[in-house]
Amino acid sequence: MTIKLIAIGKTDNKELQSLINEYAKRLGHYIRFEFDIIPDIKNTKNLSET
User: Fold this and answer.
1) Is residue 48 part of a domain?
2) Alpha carbon of 8 to those of 28, 40, 41: distances in Å?
3) Which domain holds residue 11?
4) One digit per residue, pLDDT tens: the chain, 50 residues?
5) 9: left (phi over 0), alpha (psi -120 to 50) or beta
6) Is residue 14, in this structure, part of any structural domain at all?
7) How many domains does the chain have?
């Protein structure tokens, strides 16, 4: 079984990024773990809510 964590947008906070990497490293000893970052949407004014 693989657990995949999907995040929207990248973080600029270096401390948070290092904590995420440490958590993923610890989980890797027990399960298969993937962390994917989906880019943020740039132009939200052009999108409709429907």
Assistant:
1) no
2) 22, 6, 9
3) 2-38
4) 888 989 888 888 899 889 988 988 998 899 998 889 998 877 767 777 66
5) left
6) yes
7) 1
